[in-house]
Specification:
By secondary structure, the chain is of the alpha/beta class. It has two domains: 247 residues, QueA-like (3-Layer(aba) Sandwich); 79 residues, QueA-like (Thrombin, subunit H). The chain is built from seven helices and 17 strands. The strands form three sheets. The chain has a nine-stranded mixed sheet with strand order 2-1-17-16-14-3-12-13-15. It is globular. The chain starts with 26 loop residues before the first strand and ends in a 5-residue tail after the last strand. The model has no long low-confidence stretch (mean pLDDT 94).
């Protein structure tokens, strides 16, 4: 299977540069994963797609303002830090720009000294392990000095950084938002609960690897990035009950899907757990947990469009994407949504 099999033409003007004023007013494409049939709705219609006894699973990770701008302590040269993974208290893996010459012992200053950092080591892919120095609470300092690390295809500055958070974001740790969840509002979630749909939570801290292009010619040659996840006991029990009673599991986003399918590799009943997952789902891989998926529209030749194609079939997905282009849907993080579902079981 070739990476080029997942290419489609996308006019640049369809890449959404900012969110809509109302989160749930985005368009919603309904794709039948069995027949490939397409229906055009709005996201607030998602309630109609769900049934009593279903389990809707969302990723409650919170994006941290992980981009920092500062200077080298001895020369005053400009530097950009992008925080990736927390290794221990005050110690992080970061990407530096420009950073090729930054060696262990080099020191940097942010916010006129409110935050300082020293390079401890050079690690994976040339990333640096750094130790931060500050007074007070690190998260508060980061909120004051940091910027949201928006994806590279978004060129406009975000006016309200909360719009790159889901309304239910809880656990700090992501370098990118689980964007399928950006469409939900508290009011919409209340309507979903009122219909008898059970809402459950997982946490997967999204890394920048989600934007990493697939460089291998063959899909199977791609090495997936690893991300930290948590499947709580309460959610595991909800999923087991849902399956036992014939309900459906609807995953919100590819990150929640990767968490659930990682847990499902050992079969039912699911068990709570934490760990790192590098699961790579592409056509030919089986789904063990999810029955339907709510997701945004993804980049050509990305691991995300491959995951979606594994659920609905490559031809169905590429046909749906062509339809979305014809209908002028908005694409990527701040764009419109799709639900992939088996309509006959709705």
């Amino acid at each position: 299977m070739k990476t080029s099999d997942f290419y489609y033409d996308l006019p640049e003007e369809l890449i959404a540069q900012e969110p809509l004023e109302r989160r749930d007013s985005s368009r919603l494409m309904v794709l039948d994963k069995t027949t490939g049939s397409i229906e055009h709705r709005h996201f607030y219609d998602i309630v109609d797609m769900l049934s009593e006894g279903d389990a809707l699973i969302l990723n409650d990770t919170r994006v941290i303002p992980a981009r920092l701008y500062g200077v080298k302590e001895d020369t005053g040269g400009a530097i950009e830090f992008l925080l990736l993974n927390k290794h221990s208290l005050d110690t992080w893996e970061v990407i530096l720009k420009p950073g090729r010459r930054a060696k262990p012992g080099a020191r940097f200053v942010f916010g006129n000294g409110k935050l300082k950092a020293e390079i401890l080591d050079i690690i994976n892919d040339g990333n640096r392990l750094v130790k931060f120095e500050y007074e007070g609470v690190f998260e508060n300092v980061l909120d004051e000095l940091g910027e949201m690390p928006l994806p590279p295809y978004i060129t406009k500055k975000l006016k309200d950084k909360d719009r790159y958070q889901t309304v239910y974001a809880k656990h700090n740790g992501s370098a990118a938002a689980p964007t399928a969840g950006l469409h939900f509002t508290p009011e919409l979630m209340d309507k979903i609960r009122a219909k008898g749909v059970n809402i459950g939570w997982v946490t997967l801290h999204v890394g920048l690897g989600t934007f990493r292009p697939v460089k291998s010619e063959n899909v199977e040659g791609h090495k997936m990035h690893s991300e930290f996840y948590v499947l709580p006991q309460e959610t595991a029990e909800l999923l087991n009950r849902t399956k036992e009673h014939g309900g459906r599991v609807i995953s919100v986003g590819t990150t929640a899907t990767r968490t659930l399918e990682t847990a499902g590799m050992s079969g039912f009943p699911l068990r709570a757990g934490t760990g790192w997952t590098d699961i790579f789902i592409y056509p030919g891989k089986e789904f063990h947990v999810i029955d339907a998926l709510i997701t945004n529209f993804h980049l050509p030749e990305s691991t995300l469009i491959m995951l979606v194609s594994a659920l609905a079939g490559r031809e169905n997905v590429l046909n749906a994407y062509k339809e979305a282009v014809r209908e002028r849907y908005r694409f990527f993080s701040f764009g419109d949504a799709m639900i992939i579902i088996d309509k006959k079981n709705q």
